[in-house]
Hints:
Serine Threonine Protein Phosphatase 5, Tetratricopeptide repeat; 5 strands
Amino acid sequence: MSATSPTHVFDVDQQRFEADVLQASLNTPVLVDFWATWCEPCKTLGPMLEKLAAEYNGAFRLGKVDVDTQQELAGMFGIKSIPTVVLVKDGQVLDGFTGALPEGQLREFLSRHLQPLDAPVTEDAAADVDAETPAQAINRLQQAIATEPDKAALKLELAVALMQAGQADAAEAELTALPANLATDARALRLRGELELIHAVADAPTLTELQQRVQADSGDWAARDQLGVRLLLEGDPEAGLEQFLSILQHARDWNDGQAKKRLLAAFSTLDDAELVGRYRRKMASLLF
Length: 288
């Protein structure tokens, strides 16, 4: 990136990722662009993202990750193709997409989450959004889908609202029916991670039983895995992450590398940016 690039566009590296992206996103959303010098679509997408960052005038910052020089970061995010773009807000991945979208679709993507600083959201409008219950959101979205049945983004929002209302089966049905272009949307990934964790302990022993099994045999990886999921779902996420980290440390390849998959699924569902950042680093230290 050129030295003359504006202040709202910056390079991201492993050392500064937590401070420049996760922590910074608590104040200003960060759009992270995973790219490479040899990637032709990246050469199309990158300038459009920089143009929009300037147009939004600081409503978000654009972080550039060169996947060739920052392989650990790309691995932590499970990047399999580039360009991939994720929006980080309040310390969490909020949304994302893969591929060089046309400018119109880029604008639509940004407009779902951001407004230029010269058009701020009013306090009343923000309060209305915050006051909406999951049940109200479900009703609103169902009415909107009836009006615009081909608008897939509304169906994804409905799946999220159903999950928030505790209707996991209905949420999964909506998620399964989404078109392929939404498969990498961060909200879909988070929802898929939440459902994966729920299914993992559908027929599992109780928390106490699993703790007893692990105490009796520290190498009972199946019990440790289910214990980690139960701890996550029952309100002790750090203890749950520790179980997966232990498997990763001592039996990385167990069950086709399931510990890493569990950690990534958990990261996508947790709202504690400091906790997620800390355990991402721990995972990376074991993998690289």
